[in-house]
Amino acid sequence: MERPMPTSDEKLMAMLIYVSSLFTYFIGPLIIWLLKRDESEFVDYHGKEYLNFVISYSIYLLVSSILTIVLIGFILAPVVTVLSFIFTIIAAVKSHGGETYQIPLVIRFIK
Questions:
Q1: Which residues contact 27 (CB under 8 A, 6 or more apart)?
Q2: What mean pLDDT is predicted for residues 36-54?
Q3: N or C: which end of the chain has fewer CB within 10 A?
Q4: Phi, psi of 99 (to 5 degrees)
Q5: pTM of the model
């Protein structure tokens, strides 16, 4: 069975999850997700995807920071930071287009 196309409001809320993260990192997306997750399966999906993304990339950044001891972290930390920014932008665009985008390298903690 195919999912119905999300409404323009659902697309906007899903996109705001990612866009608000550029300014509030965690709190803005969490508030949007908590307020709208019961109203929309589409927003719920993107809220969970973003939370999994934040948890995963925080772990990657922590490991990169620890690896600065052996110098490879000085390369990995900026790469993780840039990828995080790029994937946030891509996810915002895809969610506004009505797609259920899966961000690469994300560990699915919240299902």
A1: none
A2: 93
A3: N
A4: -95, 150
A5: 0.89
